[in-house]
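Sequence in, structure out. Go.
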Amino acid sequence: MTHPDRPVSIHAVARDYPNGALVGDHCHIDGQLIHATAGVMEIRAARRMWLIPPQRALWIPPRMPHGLRARGAVSLRTLYIAQDDACDVSDAPRGFVVPPLLRQLILQALEPCIRSDLQRRRHLNAVLMDELRALAPDALSLAMPSDPRLARACADILAKPDGEHRIGRLAHESGASVRTLTRLAQDELGCPLSTWRQQARILSSIPMLIAGKQVTFVAHSMGYETPGAYSAMFKRIMGVQPHLYRQSPDPNDLPRAEDDAEAAPQHPSVLPSNIKCDRPVTGRCFAEKPRQSPGASVRARAGSR
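Output:
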């Protein structure tokens, strides 16, 4: 827990990445809040995958291995939070919706007038931590398997999300029987492979929505017969209609990225990728949301920490 009299240590960084840019597996001594003001970041950590558009952010705890890929041109705005303070956020990767206030605080932390004024920076960092502690995490991520046979099947689905992907063909090409692949999906993904495929299709459609493609075009590109079927599934998983989800803040006049924008983020806390940084988190699908009593929900959240 952060001591109330000790200043919070937060380092803000802005970088831009071209479409397809990769940052291989690495980890940091500090915790990291990853936020993009434009474009979509694909992030993998703890056997899960997130697609982070401008409305969202992802928290990566200290020493947690993760890798990134730019889905389109990305303007990254990220916060590194010292590990003594990072424990106040979460000890596991978590996705969040970014409220307007938090977004403005992140951008403000990048302003030269704030960087050069120690007192203002300390005040801003304290408010940032207050906002981060108040964020409610969600389950909008995609479980990723460890078994190589199931991993091959999931990779096929992600490579061509609009494909039909019948279980028999996936099993044959992955080197497993249908029964084995079905069991592996339930054990490692927490749901049938067909449910995971629906989630993968919806997540894969987000970069096109953020790029401004029409919902009808996106629906057909993802293999849906009608825009209505796509919109219904999108709302079921994401909680909002696709035409509303793609609305994002205007990226104009944002703080400029650093001069080494096209390089991998080499913050002083970066650690080599071969360091074992944290324990894996058990993967589970996010589309199925079982109904439970308020008490059970509280116990479930407490058990996940």
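Check: The longest helix spans residues 193-210. The longest strand covers residues 66-81.
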